[in-house]
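Please, structure for the following, as tokens.
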Amino acid sequence: MENHSKADLEIIKNSNQAMLDYFNDAFIDDLETIQDLKTQAFEIDIKLDELYKTKDIYALKSGSKKSVFSPIPMEAEESGKSKVIDDQINDLNDVKDLLNAKIINLESSLNILKKRLNILNEAQDAINSLSLRYKDAGSEATDEDGFEFVSDDKDDNKSEHGYNILMLNAFNDTYLSTIIERNIKDGLESTNHKLEVLSYLLGTDISRAKLTLKDILYNSKKMLDSVEEVEEKLSSKFDSSKPFLSQLEDYIMSKRDSHPEYLIESNLEYTDYELTLHPVFSINLFRLLEIFFDNIFKHSQANKVVFDLSLSQNVIDVLIHDNGIGIEPDYLTRAPWYSSLHKAHETIYLLNGNLSIAKADDAGTNVKFRFPIQN
């Protein structure tokens, strides 16, 4: 009966994910269409501005020639040119009104899609919570220190870990591609368009040219931030030529520099300062530290962090304690499936290690993990 329930839950989960993907794609399509329409409307505004200025010039010429000595045909010619411009202005205004109407309709559709996506995301979280309840609570052994041995799962759970890891990797790839698509590619296209506008405005309207230049500088800063975010996700930014302990000291110093509002104490125990680790261990350790420190900085409301690391020839032991508000026991069910804490659990599982995250006896949170290493 339980196997049937799991199968039914999996069907519901896949169906909900398919709808989530469908509406997410529709949301992105509408968003891109809105941006295209707004670009077209902006271009029409520039053309209208040019036509209004041209019309003013013809009006000035026509007014200056109103004299008993001015021939009537010349006034008629000037009036004809002005009428042509008026017709062009009217046509462009009609097109602009049509574009604005489309934008309003699409933005209304976008708001509806947002609500549906929120509902589907909540449903997906609920489904994931139900999936976790099917896990055998007694299958995870603990040692006297309260460590949770994620590596002691039964064989039938290994495929579930594999599925989770693949999903987390897929989410990470999708997340990075979305940043590149929306923040970098779209930003470059927008900047290219604004540069074309700037080249026109430099000869016609210096005030608007200055505003456009400010927009370009702002977009460039946003794109640079996005590039740095992608770079941080793709690389560890650590010098593998240095001894591991030297890399670790540099990492702690960088955290102190970037978060001066926190008192960060570190205690490092080791038998060999010159010890080097295989990159699979050092890189994943730093990624784990990044996850836990990031969660402390974002959610703990702490002002002090104590970092203890013990390194021997065959094992790494880590304890990170903060004096914040503490973490709830059901933090995994509360967090979405793609959260960094889920990723930490699966990473330590792959490293054949163990992990415990719990409220400290006095205050704050204790994060303990260890995994075996090879040089």
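Residues 168 and 338 are 6 Å apart (CA to CA). Residues 63-70, 136-156 have pLDDT under 50 and may be disordered.
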